[in-house]
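Thread amino acids onto this structure.
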């Protein structure tokens, strides 16, 4: 979807047009579930977090001044809701999490092995660097959008991304030795 089309959908949804909101949900939902799953490792919890984030965004959409900020806004809401649900679960000490990303389960064997190796290398990184890499490479967010999601300056995102790339390379090269 082109940026202009996306912006028009946001404006239409902000004006209360349900079809526009449905189109935004259809466009972003799967990526948000994947992102939330990468944060918590639990597909069911991720789906709950994304659904809660959509409810929050729908209620507050009229407050959004810039339609171009929508994508980072929904990722930000998803991130915080996911982390909130994880904290609640940890407090209750319910169950362990499953580290396999759903996409890896349906990929061909060679691709699945590579995906699992990358996931394992990512898991070895500190949380902030792992999240930054996932948002940039797997979710396609721009650095400005990631800055909004994490509520940090753009320069911080750039340095985190640089540091994360180096750390990931070190982990992968360490596994190859």
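Threaded sequence (177 positions):
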């Amino acid at each position: 979807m082109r940026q202009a089309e996306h912006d028009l959908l946001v404006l239409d949804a902000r004006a209360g047009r349900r079809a526009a909101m449905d189109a935004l949900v259809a466009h972003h939902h799967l990526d948000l579930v994947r992102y939330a799953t990468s944060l918590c490792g639990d597909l069911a919890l991720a789906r709950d977090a994304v659904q809660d984030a959509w409810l929050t965004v729908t209620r507050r959409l009229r407050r959004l001044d810039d339609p171009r900020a929508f994508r980072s806004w929904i990722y930000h809401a998803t991130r915080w809701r996911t982390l909130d649900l994880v904290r609640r679960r940890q407090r209750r000490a319910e169950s362990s999490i499953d580290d396999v990303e759903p996409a890896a389960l349906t990929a061909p064997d060679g691709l699945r092995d590579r995906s699992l190796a990358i996931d394992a290398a990512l898991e070895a990184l500190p949380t902030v660097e792992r999240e930054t890499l996932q948002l940039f490479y797997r979710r396609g967010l721009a650095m400005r959008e990631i800055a909004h999601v994490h509520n940090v300056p753009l320069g911080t995102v750039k340095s985190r991304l640089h540091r994360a790339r180096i750390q990931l390379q070190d982990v992968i090269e360490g596994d190859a030795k």
